[in-house]
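Kindly review this protein for my students:
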Amino acid sequence: MLLLLSITLADAKKPKAPPPLPVDAWGHEEGMKADCFYAADFEKLAEGDRKMARQRALEEMKKQWQGLREDDVHMEETVIDDLETTLLGRPELIESVVKANLDQCKAFMKSGDLAVWKGWMNPLAAKLTAGECMSPLIDTMFDYLEISRPFFRSVTVCKGDRVRISATVKDRYRIADKGEWITVEGTAEKATAADMPCNIEGCNVGMLVGKFTGDDGIETTFPIGAEHDFLAPGNGQLSWSVNDTTWYDNKYFKNAAIEDRVAITVEPAN
């Protein structure tokens, strides 16, 4: 009898084990003022069930982000939309996002500082797609050369895209009052001045030139003339312009009611 009483008292002194954490459900731990969503154990699920668990996790997180759980959580609608679009296109990323989101949620439910959670979430869509290119050049684009302003239009290209830029050579313009009428091949003068958009070998004054602006912000200019094949060194924007330093005085040649216009074609290069 004494032995049994001793064992009972010893068991009573043992700390109680914490309750098991929720799985694929809302719940909370000690010190949290409200619930957070605990995802399923994705690694243990069959492929079909795994996909469904990802979708459920995204839906449950979105409910909280939208403020539908009445727990003082409310994120910006545009941030939610951007992140949802990103995750729907890359559903496998939901698994890591829901785990990181749980950490943010638990911290907020203990400290009440929503700014920290927002600081993690606001740039998340951009971070998840960093380095990706969603718009490779697969279609042909037609445009007219705008000679009165520099690098007016651009197209998105992805690393490795081969792009052919071509222009009509019969259309004329000039880049200074009373200057000579020229084509996209430019004048005979080499562009060497530091303020010229393109001043490398092959660039003439007034010719059609291109500019590639990478996602890293680095700009590269190159000569085009009548035609040029360009290999994109990275993801970015490809644009074109007249190689000039002032554009307000540029004019197309006009004969009676007919005015020349340089037609630009941008297309994948085979």
About this structure: The radius of gyration is 31 Å. Residues 16-128 form one domain. The mean pLDDT is 92. The helical segments are 2-13, 47-65, 77-89, 94-111, 114-121, 124-128.
